[in-house]
Specification:
- The protein is an all-alpha fold.
- It folds into four domains: 31-42 and 49-229, Tetratricopeptide repeat domain (Serine Threonine Protein Phosphatase 5, Tetratricopeptide repeat); 256-355, Serine Threonine Protein Phosphatase 5, Tetratricopeptide repeat; 356-422, Tetratricopeptide repeat domain (Serine Threonine Protein Phosphatase 5, Tetratricopeptide repeat, Alpha Horseshoe); 424-482, no CATH class.
- The protein is 74% helix and 0% strand.
- It has 26 helices and no strands.
- The protein has helices spanning 2-39, 51-64, 70-83, 87-100, 105-117, 121-134, 139-151, 155-168, 173-185, 189-203, 209-218, 222-229, 244-247, 256-268, 272-285, 290-302, 306-319, 324-336, 340-353, 358-370, 374-387, 393-404, 408-421, 426-438, 442-453, 460-474.
- The longest helix is centred in the first third of the chain and has 38 residues, at 2-39.
- It is flat, with a radius of gyration of 32 Å.
- It starts with a helix and ends in an 8-residue tail after the last helix.
- 38% of the residues are buried.
């Protein structure tokens, strides 16, 4: 009897404890639910959104309105809204999540990124400083603080932020670039040069390209500046630093346009496989979106998967027969893979569907020229020029045909026309310089050589050939005017 009594007593204690715990849990869930309910944005107009996105947002919204799943539903909504461009709604979600989980730095960071995108630098900075306290080793936050301080012209604060990054990650190229920008503003050319030479070496000119050219020019190092400008690999496009807490949002992006943009950035940064993954999602979401198919086809070709590339480009021509770029790229790919007959059929079909395409007429002109059907080629070059008079390629190639036929004056006329559309065109400038040299026109030769020498897109070997031709023709060296 005594044992039974003790057992019942223990059971009562356990039940009471469980009841107490349940009551505490319920109170906590009730408080969380109240915060979520107050933070839930009204459903935006999703009528133009892909069906898959409407469905995902609907499910997350329903979860957020259910007491048991409220917090998780709000977190899902925040990511869906942010990743797909509904930034006001995402902001409301983040404000609620910050109340629920004040020690979670992701919510603050993403919220700050939205504010900074709107130009609200000071509120964004306040959130990023809080985030840095919660996640002191997360480098992207400190880089963003430095960038914001720099934009606000608080250079001492920016310097401190970048130096803190380098203390934690000594070779970080983005922090070095930030300090180089500050050096540039202060006209500390040599210090800026030192930092930038490290940056461009680390990133193969993905970062620091424009700035180092400007620094070399300030230091009077024209040859170094010209060599960088003339490099085919150099690119002045700024790349944002890797930021996993923001980058991971792409995993829930269901907007084909945003997916395509991100895929393009990834491809330029050498992450083509990830770009393919995003574009395949875009095609799945919007199977009739020609631009996604076209971009995916080109990316497959870049990755040397020509069969997959051909399939996507053929899909372009089926979905949009009047999309001339689809026919042109398909024809070029077939030619590249040895299917010349298929390439010609694609080009003919393209011209039937897109008779006003200057690019397709230019392709046909090139094919006719290669087949030594010169008269027909000239006609197609002229058609391409008439349809698109503001680009140099057709002028240059037509001028080259005329020169081959001995119609030099007509060829030079086409080169001058090309330079009217692109005054720095390397081919046209080189031809004009060589013609002036070969005809013994010293003043014209000097004029054109000046323009050639000042154009970094012209390879140094070509400049040297023209200078040597000048020496042989006129009996003395050409020297640039000072």
């Amino acid at each position: 009897m005594k044992k039974k009594f003790i057992f019942l007593l223990l059971a009562a204690v356990v039940i009471a404890a469980m009841a107490g715990a349940s009551y505490i849990w319920w109170q906590k869930a009730d408080a969380q639910f109240a915060v979520v309910s107050a933070s839930l944005p009204a459903m935006p107009d999703l009528s133009a959104a892909p069906a898959m996105l409407r469905e995902r947002i609907g499910i997350a919204d329903t979860r957020a309105r259910t007491r048991l799943h409220a917090r998780n539903g709000l977190a899902e909504l925040s990511a869906l809204y942010h990743a797909n461009g509904y930034l006001n709604e995402a902001t409301l979600c983040y404000e609620g999540l910050e109340q629920l989980e004040p020690a979670e730095p992701r919510w603050l960071h993403r919220h700050a990124a939205i504010l900074a995108g709107y130009g609200e630098i000071e509120p964004a900075l306040a959130l990023w400083h809080k985030t840095a306290q919660l996640a002191p080793d997360y480098i992207p936050i400190r880089l963003r603080i430095g960038d914001c301080e720099f934009k606000s012209n608080r250079l001492d604060a920016a310097t401190a932020a970048y130096e803190e990054v380098l203390r934690r990650s000594p070779s970080d190229p983005y922090a070095l670039l930030g300090l180089a920008r500050i050096d540039f503003e202060a006209q500390r050319w040599e210090k800026a040069r030192e930092r930038l030479e490290t940056v461009v070496k680390q990133t193969n000119y993905l970062l620091g390209y424009d700035l180092i050219v400007s620094v070399y020019e300030r230091l009077g190092l024209r040859d170094l500046a010209a060599a960088i400008r003339g490099s085919a690999k150099a690119s002045g496009a700024y790349r944002d630093p890797p930021d996993p807490w923001l980058d991971e949002l792409i995993d829930v992006c269901l907007d084909p346009y945003r997916l395509s943009l991100t895929a393009g950035v990834l491809a330029r940064n050498g992450e083509s496989a990830k770009g393919v993954e995003l574009l395949r999602r875009a095609v799945e979401i919007a199977p009739d979106d020609v631009s996604s198919h076209f971009q995916l086809g080109n990316l497959y070709v870049e990755l040397r998967d020509t069969n997959a590339g051909r399939e996507q480009l053929e899909r372009c021509t089926t979905l949009a027969p009047t999309f001339s770029d689809g026919w042109a790229r398909l024809s070029a790919l077939l030619s590249q893979t040895g299917d010349q007959a298929g390439a010609e059929r694609a080009l003919e079909a393209g011209l039937r569907n897109c008779p006003q395409s200057p690019g397709l007429h230019l392709m046909l002109a090139r094919n006719l020229r290669k087949a030594q059907q010169t008269g027909e080629a000239i006609n197609e070059f002229l058609i391409s020029i008439r349809l698109r008079p503001n680009e140099p390629d057709a002028y240059i190639e037509l001028g080259d045909v005329y020169i081959e036929q001995g119609r030099v004056d007509e060829g030079m006329e086409q080169m001058r026309a090309a330079l009217e559309t692109d005054p720095a065109n390397p081919v046209a400038l080189s031809v004009m310089a060589f013609n002036a040299i070969s005809t013994g026109n010293n003043p014209e030769a000097r004029k054109w050589l000046e323009r050639v020498a000042d154009q970094p897109r012209i390879e140094r070997a070509r400049v040297d050939q023209l200078v040597q031709a000048y020496r042989q023709q006129f009996g003395h060296d050409w020297k640039p005017s000072m």
